[in-house]
UniProtKB/TrEMBL annotation:
Family, as annotated: Belongs to the glycosyltransferase 2 family.
Listed InterPro entries: Nucleotide-diphossugar_trans (IPR029044)
Keyword Transport: no
Keywords on record: Glycosyltransferase, Transferase
One Pfam family cited in the UniProt record for this chain: Glyco_tranf_2_3
Alphabetized Gene3D superfamilies for the sequence: Spore Coat Polysaccharide Biosynthesis Protein SpsA, Chain A
GO molecular function annotations of the record: glycosyltransferase activity
Name of this chain's protein: Glycosyl transferase family 2
Length: 334
């Protein structure tokens, strides 16, 4: 029998992306799975629109599949109702506040482990579209080696045909606390069609063995957003679990904007420091600080004096301060 997989999607004001992703999930060839949708306190019409989709009242148009009306309505489970194997239902969990990516996904993870007894948990971004065989291939890779804890897919850009966003995940530059996505912006010409063990699996699509989660825990909620996927995989690696890339599992991802707003800069820099505090020590940590502290001070001064942008200067400076004390006193400033 196929291993059981709990698929978790996190929605926040993104119902259009979410229902396109859901429709692709309900057309995959794998059978032993359930879908958990965690709504992170959306303030738009997400819940209403998702209900309309489940009832068959909101057909989806996508260039990657044809809408299927034959499996509608899709049963909606709330208030702790449990699905039956293969019933094609949707479990809806609603958060009372926006908990961020890590803690929001943890709500779904905890529900799955406590109520559904899965063999695997799959975190999947709601702005993705999956190929029909993607889950079969991910699970096959996980089952092939007991040391594999995390499995990632070939992620293509949604709106750039044949261009790779990442081959499973990426590698970590510990000197600068930066990550490099494997295969980023490369043509999908077969050169990435081989087995790779990245340092981490990207959070857009990561299959994790339930036993690994029970051992190392869920995502670290201190991150709120950014670096939590890297942290999870490295925590697993420290316990003896590898990350693996499966090129035959394919998804398409609506890659986010690269704009450098204060919110993004704060969390990226704060969490870089928090990650390094958590996973390095001695010379490796000091070498990073020798780069990071001057970098932050320069950026703070540059933004304040040359750009006259006090908000961006504050984002950089407080990212460093909060990063140093985050483990004891998590702060959300933006």
């Amino acid at each position: 029998m196929e291993p059981k997989v709990s698929i978790i999607l996190l929605n926040w004001n993104g119902w259009e992306d979410t229902i396109e992703c859901l429709e692709s999930l309900y057309q995959i060839n794998y059978s032993n799975y359930n879908v958990i949708l965690v709504d992170n306190h959306s303030e738009d019409k997400s819940i209403k629109k998702i209900r309309e989709y489940l009832n068959g009242d909101l057909p989806i148009r996508s260039e990657f599949y044809e809408y299927r009306s034959s499996n509608k309505p899709i049963k909606l489970l709330e208030n702790g109702e449990k699905p039956e194997t293969g019933d094609g239902s949707l479990i809806l969990l609603k958060n009372s506040e926006n908990l961020g990516f890590a803690a929001g996904n943890n709500v779904g993870i905890n529900h799955a482990l406590e109520n559904l007894d899965p063999d695997y948990v799959l975190l999947l971004n709601n702005d993705t579209v999956v190929d029909k065989n993607f889950l079969d291939e991910l699970v096959k890779t996980g089952e092939s080696n007991a040391e594999i804890g995390f499995v990632g897919a070939k992620t293509l850009f949604y709106d750039r045909e044949g261009i790779v966003q990442e081959a499973g995940g990426g590698m970590i530059d510990y000197t600068h606390a930066k990550v490099e996505e494997i295969g980023y912006n490369e043509v999908d010409d077969g050169s990435l069609d081989n087995y790779i063990e990245p340092d981490y699996i990207g959070g857009a699509c990561v299959l994790v063995k339930a036993g690994v989660i029970k051992k190392i825990g869920g995502l670290d909620p201190n991150y709120f957003m950014y670096w939590e996927d890297v942290d999870w995989c490295i925590t697993g690696f420290e316990e003896g679990y590898k990350s693996a890339y499966q090129y035959q599992a394919v998804i398409r991802h609506k890659y986010g904007s690269s704009s450098q707003n204060t919110f993004k800069m704060y969390y990226l820099n704060r969490n870089r420091l928090y990650f390094m505090k958590k996973h390095t020590s001695g010379g490796k940590y000091l070498k990073f600080l020798a780069y990071f502290v001057p970098f932050i001070l320069f950026e703070t001064t540059y933004q304040l004096i040359r750009k006259s942008d006090s908000k961006m200067a504050k984002a950089h400076f407080y990212a460093m301060l909060d990063g140093f004390k985050l483990a004891k006193n998590p702060i959300k400033r933006f």
